[in-house]
Design goal:
A hairpin with a 2-residue loop joins β1 and β2. This protein is α+β, with helices and mostly antiparallel strands. A two-stranded antiparallel ribbon has the order 1-2.
């Protein structure tokens, strides 16, 4: 990975609040920001619950017996 690519990734993480950067001349020290990760974890948890509920509902819908077909007699077509 090139140095400009690393720098670009670090800037994204810094803007997201996941790292803090301390610059001393050419030396850049990065530290993790635990508060930023807590926010990311809360966002992930919220979306995981949302999708779990919707996927579970879809599974129930797809796997339930179709009561309309069970009540209606099946008509076979006769070919001559």
């Amino acid at each position: 990975m090139s140095l400009p690519a690393v720098s670009k990734h670090l800037k994204v993480l810094e803007r997201a609040g996941l790292i803090a950067r301390e610059i001393d001349g050419r030396l850049h020290r990065c530290t993790l920001n635990s508060a930023g990760f807590r926010g990311a974890a809360a966002w992930i948890d919220q979306h995981q619950r949302f999708w779990d509920q919707h996927i579970d509902a879809l599974e129930r819908h797809v796997t339930r017996p179709d009561t309309r077909r069970a009540r209606a007699p099946h008509k076979e077509s006769k070919k001559s």
